[in-house]
Design a protein that fits this description.
The protein has about 425 residues and is mostly helical. The protein is about 85% helix and about 0% strand. Helix 5 runs parallel beside helix 7. The two termini are about 35 Å apart.
Length: about 425
């Protein structure tokens, strides 16, 4: 099966899996916000953001490394990855970091944050392995069952445990997905590690460290770091407003970004084979994504008040203007997802790290100054400007250094 057919199959499975997962997660979030209110929902989102940030600082770049090297060098990388030593080291680092960070940042919820961290970390790592090995059907089944269990657990425990049912649902989501995927790997053993091909450890470590540093730095621009400043300067209710708006803006672009979820393995394999058709794929998908994202974002932005009150309830009406702002920037992020996959596949993470480092410094200074003075509106505007700047720089780099043409003319006049 050629690379294009594999891309089509992976994309189809990823679309259905992520769509189902996104809709069930949106249902749980909307139900929780309507039931427990903006303040409780904001507190839950702050804890979840903390767990995601701890994972980001502790994963050592392994998820992105798995996605790239399992696709291009399956057997030799598997021989390194699936060993007791690698598993033990990674597990130890995650446990120590998770427990220590939970004790420092969430001492009142130490047990809950630790269990949530372990469950979600395992899920996120196994997802990257499934994508790298192209285990489309297994990944699809795991997503479906874990999402169903998450919804059932939340609805069952909600009257008894209150907002804690939200965390219990997320924990079960991660554990069920992990159990299904591990069982599938052990049963079918889709990877044979017997090979004469060698893969320099230096190459793997260099890529992992560079992508890890790039991800940490990029988080200040892309991963809701505003929540930290909002929680410190404003209120948990404001955290709830911000989270609801950005969640809906992201969900509006989700159907488009679903198509890009399989692109890193595709571009990685094309790069290793010297396949020039990847340039045509980049140009075509960028153009299609741009048009689809623009019209989707415009529709949501013009109806932002109706959308956010319909899903999250009347208590979240003050967040409607935030949704409109985020939707204004969302099309650029959707289009950039293609370029991000390309940069990762070509191992250009040092460039991403350098660019993001500058934006990260600017973002920290800007958020610290703007959010206390101008509130959520100021934070939303700063986020939009910084993301736009990062996308422009990245697109120019891809065009000039990698020689992948950005279809600006076709986008504007076709």
């Amino acid at each position: 099966m050629n690379n294009e057919n594999q891309l089509a199959i992976r994309t189809r499975y990823n679309i259905f899996a992520r769509l189902f997962s996104s809709l069930t997660l949106l249902f749980v979030n909307a139900y929780a916000s309507r039931t427990f209110g903006a303040e409780a929902y904001g507190g839950a989102q702050y804890l979840l953001w903390g767990v995601q940030t701890i994972w980001l600082f502790g994963n050592m770049g392994l998820p992105q490394t798995c996605s790239r090297f399992l696709a291009a060098h399956t057997a030799p990388f598997s021989r390194i990855l699936f060993t007791k030593k690698t598993t033990a080291v990674f597990t130890a680092v995650l446990l120590v970091l998770g427990l220590a960070s939970s004790f420092i940042f969430f001492p009142n919820r130490l047990f809950l944050s630790s269990i949530l961290f372990i469950a979600l970390s395992l899920q996120w790592l196994l997802q990257s392995i499934a994508e790298g090995l192209m285990l489309n059907l297994l990944h699809f089944r795991a997503i479906i069952w874990s999402s169903l269990v998450m919804t059932i657990v939340f609805l069952s425990l909600r009257p008894i445990t209150g907002i804690e049912s939200y965390f219990a649902a997320l924990i079960m989501n991660g554990l069920v997905y992990s159990v299904i995927l591990i069982a599938g790997l052990l049963k079918h053993r889709p990877v044979s590690i017997e090979t004469t091909e060698t893969l320099p450890m230096k190459q793997i470590v260099t890529f992992a460290l560079s992508v890890w540093v790039a991800a940490i730095i990029s988080a200040f621009v892309w991963q809701r770091m505003e929540i930290f400043f909002i929680e410190r300067s404003l209120t948990k209710t404001d955290v709830g407003y911000f989270s609801a708006a950005i969640t809906l803006a992201t969900l509006a672009m989700q159907p488009i970004q679903m198509f890009s979820s399989a692109l890193t393995p595709y571009f990685s394999k094309a790069y290793s084979l010297g396949d020039e058709r990847a340039k045509q794929t980049y140009t075509f998908l960028t153009k299609i994504f741009a048009w689809a994202a623009f019209f989707t974002a415009a529709a949501v932005s013009f109806n932002s008040e109706f959308v956010i009150t319909f899903i999250y309830g009347e208590n979240f009406r003050p967040a409607s203007y935030l949704l409109a702002i985020f939707c204004g920037a969302a099309p650029f992020s959707a289009v950039a997802s293609v370029g991000s996959s390309l940069l990762s596949a070509h191992a250009k993470m040092p460039f991403v790290a350098a660019t993001s480092a500058v934006l990260a410094v600017v973002s920290i200074i800007a958020y610290a100054m703007i959010i206390p003075a101008y509130g959520l509106f100021g934070g939303a505007i700063v986020r939009t400007i910084l993301q736009g700047a990062g996308i422009i720089v990245g697109t120019l780099y891809i065009h000039r250094r990698l020689h992948f043409n950005f279809p600006l003319k076709e986008y504007l006049f076709s």
